[in-house]
Amino acid sequence: MEKENAIGRPDPKTLLEETRQALRVEYLRALPGKIESIAALVDKLGAEPENREEFDRFQSEVHSLAGTSALYGFAGLSAAARVLDLDLLERSRSGRPSPPPEAELRRTLLALRRALAALG
Predict the structure, then answer these.
(1) Taking the domains of the chain in order of start, what are their residue ranges?
(2) For the residues of 18-29, what is the DSSP string, one character each?
(3) Is the pLDDT of residue 75 over 80?
(4) What is the mean pLDDT of residues 58-62?
């Protein structure tokens, strides 16, 4: 419910908090799709580990998940994604980027799914 300031207008702090909360709820709703998109990329990279375009897309999606989940206050999910994000960054900087072994990717994917489940 909006509070009003001294001149009868909605309080900017209240509006900001309500907007932030609405964005957080929408982000939470979108998270399963984001994780499943990452899972689909894990499958593609398992089949084509040398596919640079898919590697770059995978790295971008993992990086985005790590950052945005932290922004919205989902620290556990961010931490799980950040471990992979940093690994992918190192691999990318090596000059010959390649995904981690598929078993490692599957473990990370499981950690992401568990972190999502912990959010309720």
Answers:
(1) 31-118
(2) HHHHHHHHHHHH
(3) yes
(4) 96
The answer to whether residue 26 scores a pLDDT higher than 90 is yes
Topology of domain 31-118 in CATH is Four Helix Bundle (Hemerythrin (Met), subunit A) (1.20.120)
- Nearest residue to 69 (alpha-carbon basis) of 39, 43, 109, 35: 35
Helix 75-93 vs helix 102-118: crossing angle, to nearest 10: 160
Rounded to two decimals, what is the model's pTM? Answer: 0.84
| Radius of gyration over every alpha carbon of the chain, rounded to an integer in angstroms | 18
What pLDDT was estimated at residue 13?
87
Q: Token pair for residue 42?
A: 């894990």
Q: Which position has the token pair 């989902």?
A: 74
